[in-house]
Amino acid sequence: MKIVETVAEIRRELQTHRSKTIGLVPTMGYLHEGHLSLIKRARKECDIVVLSIFVNPLQFGPNEDFERYPRDLDRDAALAKQAGVDLLFCPSVREMYPHEILTEVRVRKVTDRLCGASRPGHFEGVATVVTKLFHIVLPDRAYFGLKDAQQVAVIEQMVKDLHFPVTIVPCETVREPDGLAMSSRNVYLSEEERKQAVILNRALTEVKEQLEKGLLITADEVNRYVRERINSQPLAQIDYVETLSYPRLEPIHHLDQRPIIVAVAVRFGSTRLIDNLLFGGKEESACSGQ
């Protein structure tokens, strides 16, 4: 595995591999098993695997955790090498944004709700940095975890609308043994917060059972059920609970055969966790977010 820090160097390294299949796994680092599962999938499907580690300031709000976001490049590099990464791209903020950036990428409508509403500017930052990474690496395939299903929907829409020559590969979420979705931010949780945070997956697992039995027939019923379960934990502070169509993320009333997402964002102390359930349509999966 080779570690590169500049745009010029990663382009030079990849120039001789353009006839091969190049897979990109974009991350903000502090790798966990969820990230490693993306790398392993890319390793199986691609000739060259590029892992990017970049904590992107554009997707953090003014009162969010950019400065304290966990970072450990030496640890990440060791894990990446073991998982089979060929090129580790870890640019600095100055390298990615050498001057004031006057251009941003904005995906409308699918960013109007959920984290797009509660974190203004977040998905503009995500779409902009992913666009930059796609132009720098020129991957054939790019791997994203369904732990943030809205992010996947945003990137898929962007790729479709702008004709990016890249295949987006959504990958299932990896969870801890007790069901909590693996996330770099889990390290922020106190022992008691960590204990109570498992209510997110439990609530969504229970609502899935209710949906399979046909006991819930409207989005409001689903939202009310999930809210009641989450509020059973005294440290949980709900940001949102929403049931929407997926991947368009449009409001719905009655549930039918179309795919839906039941999405939640909840704070435990200063730590904001998201989790979600994708249900219906041809495929069903439980997935959760950072």
From TrEMBL:
Its EC number is 6.3.2.1. Beta-alanine binds at Q59. ATP binds at residues 28-35, 145-148, 174, 182-185. It is an enzyme of class 6 (ligase). Pfam families: Pantoate_ligase (PF02569). Signal peptide: none annotated. GO terms for biological process: pantothenate biosynthetic process. It catalyses: (R)-pantoate + beta-alanine + ATP = (R)-pantothenate + AMP + diphosphate + H(+). Keywords: ATP-binding, Cytoplasm, Ligase, Nucleotide-binding, Pantothenate biosynthesis. GO terms for cellular component: cytosol. It is found in: Cytoplasm. Pathway: Cofactor biosynthesis; (R)-pantothenate biosynthesis; (R)-pantothenate from (R)-pantoate and beta-alanine: step 1/1. The active site is at H35 (proton donor). Its main location: cytoplasm. (R)-pantoate binds at Q59, Q151. One of its GO terms (molecular function) is pantoate-beta-alanine ligase activity. Belongs to the pantothenate synthetase family. Homodimer. Catalyzes the condensation of pantoate with beta-alanine in an ATP-dependent reaction via a pantoyl-adenylate intermediate. The reaction proceeds by a bi uni uni bi ping pong mechanism. This is Pantothenate synthetase. It comes from Lihuaxuella thermophila.
